[in-house]
Every structure is written in C-alpha cells, then in structure tokens.
Amino acid sequence: MMPGMADASSRLRSIDVLRGLIMVVMALDHVGLMVGRFHSQEMWAGAWTRYQSALPFLTRFVTHFCAPGFFLLMGAGMALMAGARARQGWTDGHITRSIVTRGLLLVVVATFFEVPAFLIATLSGPPLGDNSEFAIPGTPERRWVLTVLFALGTSMAVSGLLIRARSAVWALLAAAALLVTAVTTPGPEHVDTVYGFGRTVLMLSRWSHGVWAQYPLVPWFGIAALGVLLGRALAADKARVYRALPWVGLACLALAVGLRAAGAFGNLRAPRDGSWIEFLNLIKYPPSLVFTLFMVGGNLLLLAFLERAQVWTTGLGRVIETFGRSPLAFYIAHLWLFSLIGVA
Q: What is the phi/psi pair of residue 207, to 5°?
C-alpha cells in the first residue's frame, strides 16, 4: 500500500476519497507529459511557463494540489496507523520498522517501476519540446531521476524513525523544513551556479552529477510532517478536527495570498506581470512557501467538504474511493499505460 496506511476498520473514508481524487487529477498532468509531449514548469530558476490564456493554466493549476495532498495524506496515514498499531499492542520498535520498511519499499518501486516509465516516455518518441522538465537546468550527463515516489519513500522512512516524537517536535520539524526552504533557496539568477549533490537532493530541484532531483527531500518532508500532525489530531478528536478544517484551510489560503501580494519572502519568484494568472503561477520545484500554504489549504478545505458531503455514498464516490485505497497500483499502471501510448 502507498501513503494510506490505516486499518480498514479505522479508515477515514474522506481521506480515501481525497486520495483517489488526487490520483485522477494527477493522471491529467501525466497524460499531458507522456502523450501530449508537453509539461509546464515552475522552477526556482530557469524554466517558468508563461500562459497566454486561462484554460492551459487552470489545467495545470488544478494538478498542483496533487503532490502536496499526497504528502499530507501520507503523513496522516502514518500517524493513524501508528496509533492503531499501538492500540493493538505493537511495540514502538515494531511500528518504526513497519513504517521504515514501507518507505524503503517505495524507493525500490520508484527505482524499478516509476523512473523507467518516465524515462521511456521522455527520452524516446517525438521530442518533448522546449519546455520539457528534462531540459532545465541542463547537463550532458543525464542518468537518473529522483521522482515523487522517491521523495514519498524517503520521507516515510525518515518519519518512521521519528514517529514516537511528540507533536511539538513534529510541528518544529514542519516549520523548520518549510522555512529553511524559503530562506535558503537561491534566486533565479543562480540558474547556472553549481551546487553539491547533497544540497541538490535535499533542497533544490535541478540536475547534479547526472541526477535530476525533481522532488528534494526537505520541503516535501515538511508537508508530510504537517500530515502527521493532522493524523494525530484526527485520532484524538475526529469531529472537532473536521469542524476546524475549513477555518484552518482558509487561514492557509489567506496567508498564501498575503505573501504572494507582498511579492518577496515565501515566493521564490515574484509575478512577472499584474495578471491573475501570474499571481497564481506559483513555484513548485522546490515548493515555495506560498505554493505549500495554498495547496495544503486547498486540500484541507476539500477534505472537510468530502467529509461533510459523504461523497462515498454515491457511485462515482465509491469508484474514486477505490482508487484511493489502492493508489500505488493505480499510479504505476497509469504511468506505464501513458508511457507506452506516448511512445507509440
């Protein structure tokens, strides 16, 4: 199983539905890359797509909620699973080993199943075009990609080692990861600056030593840490948390809008003009603080709505819930399907 890890008896169905919805929307982005041969970019330096109309921007914008939502729900799933296993009598060491093992297995799946699908799709068939994610910042020695499953797996493994820590520690970890990213990410004028491999893997999205670190560990681990706090809160008082989620989500959105309007701290790159599209054209690689607040806030609002509407009682809701309960199978299957179609 991927980031949803609670027992069937204790599952929160709104989380499964949200995860399934994320899978469906994410597929929209991947079919554009693998079949349409185009992928928008929101880099800290280098490529940053400028849109001429609303439709292509909104098509990309809705997919931005996917990766933050996945990391957030993964963190919540770990917390819920740890609590459920503890009530069943598992020792702390057993819980830690279980979570770390799952994380390492995700890294293995990323290595042998996810990355080959992406490489086949992007390095064969028709050219990807000028805005390919494999063209910025460049190096002639291109060997491997550290993708979303790699970041999910490593975040899960690290989280497993820390799962017994107090919630205050997790809050500090989340804040530190997100703020360090906001403070230390270089300006776009450093697009050609050479950085060490360690900093690239941990903090920056770019090529280094032939490896493209698309999802650096630190900022995405910060979102997973927020998820751990969410999961613990849900385990303690589900009803109270669902009542609070709309207000927390709106507060995140308001803070994101305020920081975006200020145009400095938390943006990584300010809007290039006064249009609403540029205002919402946020930096994802690595995720700016504005991006994280906006997308986490949106996911919290959507989670609260799904719980209130109980959409899993509808036929479509049950189908989406099924995707959310088996996300890894859906993820790998759709990657290879789109990859082979794109090559053909």
A: -80, 145
